Amino acid sequence: MSPASANPDAGRPPSGAGGGRRHSALARYVAKRLVIAVGLLFGMTLVTFCLTNLVPGDPVAAALGQRAADDPEIVARFRTEYGLDRSLPAQYLAYLGRLIRFDLGTSWQTHHAVAADLAKAVPATMEIAFGAIVGAALIGITFGAWSAYRRGLATDQVLRLVSLIGISLPTFWTAIVCFYVFYYRLGWAPGSGRLTPGVAAPPNVTGMYTVDALLAGEWRTFVDASAHLALPTLVLTLYTIGLLTRFSRTSILEVLDQDYVRAAKAKGLPGRVVFFRYVLRGAAVPVLTVVGLAFGSLLSGTVLVESVFGWPGLGSYAYQAASKLDLLAVMGVGLVVGLVYLCVNLAVDLAYGFIDPRVRVGR
Amino acid sequence: MTRRSPTARLWRAIPPGLRQPLGLAAGLIALAWLVICLIGPAIAPFDPLAQDLPRFSPPGEVSFLGTDELGRDLFSRILAGARVTIGLALVLVCLSMLIGSLLGLLAGFFGRWVDEAIMRFTDLVMAFPTVILAMVTAAALGASLFNAVLAALVVSWPQYARVVRSIVLGLRGNDFVWSGRLLGFSAVRSIRVDILPGTMGPTLVLASLDIGTAALLLSGLSFLGLGARPPTPEWGSMVSAAVSHFDKWWLGVFPGLAILTVVISFNFIGDALRDALDPGVAPR
Description:
The complex is a heterodimer of chains A (363) and B (284). In chain A, 75% of the residues lie in helices and 0% in strands. Chain A is mainly α and 363 residues long. Chain A has a domain at 23-56 and 104-129 and 173-243 and 298-362. The longest helix of chain A is centred in the C-terminal third of the chain and has 39 residues, at 271-309. Chain B has helices spanning 6-13, 21-43, 74-110, 112-127, 130-141, 145-156, 158-172, 175-182, 187-223, 235-244, 249-277. With 284 residues, chain B is an all-alpha fold. In chain B, 73% of the residues lie in helices and 0% in strands.
């Protein structure tokens, strides 16, 4: 979406330039976004609940195994323990009631509180995801800008092909190929998991091993954790670069065609100034939107990447929970992922207000 | 007046993006895969399911691309697997196009609460990360190829609904639609005669760009063990065999390359089609 079509009041002169009014408009904008976000989260719990309940799979059999599932007494005890003997609406309401107290229930599979499981898995995934989104954004936007500036020339053709290959790569395949080349063949990367066996995890502060190791001053652990991070991060970065290159190229091309850019060039501003102050600023809103979207698709990608690298993150947890029909764990994952997604979108939405003053006014 | 020869006219009918070396290559690769979909098993040198070759034989020894952990010929399995991966991706794209377009038509044409209900539901589905939602659905339904398609369908229709709705909103206010309504066209007739034709182009462009994504999603589900069941030769599940035998590089590399070439060539064609027909709906 172009910035102009994103807000219908773009052409109108800014009204109410007074600071107070602008703040209240921003506050209303944030409040509206928050209400929508909470509504979406609520909807997500409902969708996951329906999906895991209204389908043929039998969670009890999946959780207990076939032999125990044949014993009616065990099944009855299991159903009472997890409240499965009540009607579906009653189960859902009970879940929401606990949710308000931040209680996500107990996983059938790990027998831990889902919230505790997630508190371990989420930082592991975020450690890869942050690195990947920053790396991909830097490289992708650079490639996109480069490609746009060289429109139609050889550089553009090559970069477009590279980004096309990027979006066409099956992530799980890239992960296996990288693992084979960098671990098995070259021996540059360590094996799977977050740390080499024998290296103790750093004291838990953020749950991200690299950060925790630095905080505790454990240099060796930091190096080991970083080495384990490198490959999964690389794979996820490759996965995202293509997408970001394509979108940045499009948005920057659109801005390059604008009169104000032509005017800036015509009055003889140096190319660097035109690029950073005019082009990049104009393209920032759509590019930022796509970085936000890419973060979401990156979370999708972690499922496939984590399964190859034995990374005990959100993706692995989601996969185990889904294949065992571990209802509460699945809903927990859905909630967390939804929350991350909505936070990112909210952050992106709010960033618009700072980048593009037109978004603030008139809403 | 000069008349163009039939060949020249045919050439002009090809989108400009495909009339260059890379585009031609992409078109030919896609065409080759489609042909393999039809005749794959017939031209396979070995039976794709037979387990009678030596196990883990590297490429070039017993067969062209080597054999897998059960002594099956990899090349034959890739040929036979084309119709599974590509065929199902095409089915998936058609189904999501149908369902998404229908909902988009209803939302755009009737507006008000119909629009609100459909679009809020669309937002909800789009707020989930695709692989995670598809994975949960596939796991809940039970692992099978049919269920994998259903699960992928759950996450892939919303983009069609959005695009079609926005086009219908643009068309709805036009005089030719109003005059039809004033002549007494029913809603169904108005949609069929005045609205539907206008939505076809952009929807087809979107669909052509979606084939690659569909193939990636389906093979990803199979890779996780939530799609094809053994011994079906499906590329994603073939790659997953390489996770436990990663030192036998050919197990994963070749099926993965098959997926990659299919996705690249269809994405390239989709890009070229969009550049040629782009009414400015799909993101460039």
